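Human: Here is a favour to ask of a fellow structure person. Comparing notes only helps if you start from a blank page. I am asking you to supply a protein in sequence and structure-token form. Write it directly below this note and I will take it from there.

Assistant:
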Amino acid sequence: MQQGCYPAAAGKFRQALTLFRETRDRNGEARALHSLAMTDFRQGSYQQAVEEYRQALTLFRETGSQRGEARALGNLGVLLGRLGRRQEAMDHYQLSLALQREIGDQSGEIITLLRLGNIDLQSGRHPEATDRVQRALTLSREGGEVESEAEALTLLGEVELAQGQYQRADEYQRQALAMFRETRDVAGEVHALTGLGAAVLAAGQPGDAVTHYSAAADLAAQIGDKSMSARAHDGLGHAHHADGNPGQGRYHWHVALTLYTDLGVPEAEQVRALLGGVLGASGRVRA
């Protein structure tokens, strides 16, 4: 799964799930369901993943595994957030964070802080997002958790971009990209590449943005991550349009729209609006 081989990973998790059920290992069954849900989520099977996370959550609670319960709550929150249900996502994150702090799960706390920071970012609460992500970054560095540090840098870059700090956003994304490549986290690499594309596009470098978004789209297609693939094609639409290639831009927005529609996420309407003509004569998206 770390290398982006999701179908192969899902096959192994299903084998494990069968064996745990045969041996009546309820905690093992919960862990297998939780891992299987992660692969389904990455492949865009959101409803299937929601059901698996909920089953895992029930089993973790039955077996008294607070660590498992906290992680299942957090991952279920991610899915709810992707489906546009931000308040429900926030509620799940807060429950997860409380459990993680109660049992001293610092790794889990870092992840949940990042997720809360992402909700803050999406809701326009930039100071709150910065505080949470900086806290997660500090904890990651103190604990030597390279993967979480890279995720924090990526999200911090997005927060800086939202506040118009293009150069700082660029620097954070490049740092994250190098770390993801070092740890061979392909999904993380795709995320950082899209973030870098957004940063250079905002800084007025659409040609460079096309390069970064294209690399992200290729990697996302290789690992079968529909969500990141849609994000990359959406970015390519903006980059090509800004670079004076509206035809190419529309092509990539059509690809993004198909993917977002399949996923059933709110971004589909945003791209549909772009294709419907919400573009000014200057080529910039009208507010």
Remarks:
- Residues 21 and 160 are 47 Å apart (CA to CA).
- The longest helix spans residues 46-63.
- The two ends are 39 Å apart (CA to CA).
- The chain is about 80% helix and 0% strand.
